[in-house]
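Sanity check

After download, print the first record. It should look like this:
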Amino acid sequence: MSGACTSPRRTPGSRPLPTSRRPRCTQTGQSRNRAAACAAELPRSEHTHQFTGDWEVWKVGGKVFMLQTSMPGEPVVILKADPSDADTLRASHTSISRGYHMDKKHWITTRPGADIEQALVDNLVTESYLLVVAGLPRQNRPVDPDTFSFLPSAD
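Expected structure tokens:
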């Protein structure tokens, strides 16, 4: 594993960079590429394409945890989220909205923007994955969602 996917959850005790030095996903496609790199590193994640439309689908245990597509003029990443976290994220980030074509309570859509940092993308992808893993039968879980962690990345 290359270590591109890191999040505060997986790196306890790490200090965040000062706001001015935090890597941001502001360019078109940057947050989408970051999300795909993170998802690819998660244990037993699988990347497929929907047979209709321009949708990339990321699954674990046969269940979707991330979708990627383009809406008019911009790429988006759609992720599962805890409902209370989703409300907080939407309120504090203009680049995060309700899930596009998904249950608006349990899914969020992220767009490129100055308020989307790489660490946030990593964390959202990992949390989405863990929410789905937690819903799988124990014998089918690739990781324990309560103790799962990754080593910090070098980038």
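If your output differs, re-run the checksum step. Summary of this record's structure: The two ends are 13 Å apart (CA to CA).
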